[in-house]
């Protein structure tokens, strides 16, 4: 398995796979309330079977070329992750996403991990358009999109029903030529 350092000796990005379901569930349990404020992942991994099924769904997506999921480890503990929620090489389009438990917030881990994903998508796989979607109230997620240089394209009003509330979803993106220019600064 590979591991990509995320700026220091203590944090790294690695594939997140079904055999890691127990560790994934423990991570979700530590951050469930925080993660679940805006992200349905907290509800999708409530027990070991559902955690394993969620990770297995991404293993199947990866095998089909349609998505991937990676964990962020800090000091050897899984504290968050990033993913290609959608990956369509034929249309040269993908959507990235993220989550973190509270212990890992404010360290720049997601920003660095998302840059790794976008580099791979654009440089290695020829993706032209990378999207980021987040609830309008999820300022931490929206701030990541801003930090990595994405452009806010608009708001999908009441687009995401979650826990009995309809949320506006913001759409952000970066195009391959823009990403290459940002990398060269």
Walk me through this protein's architecture.
This protein has helices spanning 21-35, 41-44, 48-63, 109-124, 139-147, 176-183; strands at residues 4-5, 11-15, 68-74, 77-88, 93-100, 129-135, 151-162, 165-175. The chain is α+β, with helices and mostly antiparallel strands and 185 residues long. An eight-stranded mixed β-sheet has the order 1-2-3-4-5-6-8-7, with helices on both faces. It is globular, with a radius of gyration of 16 Å.
Quick overview of this protein structure:
This protein is α+β, with helices and mostly antiparallel strands. Helices cover 37% and strands 35% of the residues.
Major sheet size, sense and barrel closure: 8 strands, mixed
Shape: globular
Structural class: alpha+beta
What is the CA-based Rg, rounded? 16 Å
Number of helices: 6
Gap from first CA to last CA: 31 Å
Helicity range: 25-40%
DSSP strand count = 8
- Please report which band the strand proportion falls in: under 5%, 5-15%, 15-25%, 25-35%, 35-45% or over 45%: 25-35%
What spatial order of strands do you see in the largest sheet?
1-2-3-4-5-6-8-7
Q: Mean pLDDT, as a whole number?
A: 95
What's the SSE pattern? Answer: EEHHHEEEHEHEEH
